[in-house]
Protein: Oxidoreductase
Amino acid sequence: MNTVRTTDEESAGARKVAVVTGAGSGIGRAVAVELLTAGWAVALAGRRPEPLAETAAAAPAGGGTALTVRADVSRPEDVAALFGAVRDRFGRLDLLFNNAGTFGPGGVPVEDLPYEAWRHVVDTNLNGAFLCAQAAYRQMKEQDPRGGRIINNGSISAHTPRPHSVAYTATKHALTGLTKSLSLDGRPYGIAVGQIDIGNAATEMTAGMQTGALQANGETAPEPVMDVADVARTVRHMAELPLEANVQFATVMATAMPYVGRG
Structure:
């Protein structure tokens, strides 16, 4: 069952309202805190209530309103409850940051990848992104004033894979198609859709890269990372553009990571 908690009881008023999925850690937490600091009302969505509460507590006092909602984005009923809670609490939705995702079992060759692991990655990264985008799209289309913005968290792997990453890479390539289709279909309703492709932001998920990551030539080598705050600032810039302008695709990465020329 979903649980809802707010950091205060103020009405969001004229504040912009965002949903951030996967808000309990990493990029999702950094983006949520950045938006809260800027005065946004932010619904923090994730599978575990405790990390969501920690994200809400990490925002400075006097910022925006935080609403925490336990939700597994791969479950349609959880997604419906999440966006229903946002509608009931704030009355509208201006931004969805479609961030929840999983890499799946790392370092597993394609011939050894269990179907259950493949399905889990697809359900989270692709099906979950679709379900959240669909729910956001429906609300943005019907609200007054109409419109809003969806930003999908792609990846460098939406362009170029790492070794043994077939499920993650396939879903991130698919997410690019989802972004393009949503962007086209949203035009008549003032719904702007873009994608941020992130490479080597310093989070729990990328902690091992600094000690050694498998390269395309079979060697293991350390890779540089960047501050996740730089990603959060980029998302905020995309989010705060007027709906007449859109960053369709943005790539933000550690400058010296092995992406350009990878392999």
In short: The beta strands are 4-6, 17-21, 41-46, 66-70, 95-98, 148-153, 191-199, 213-214, 220-221, 249-253.
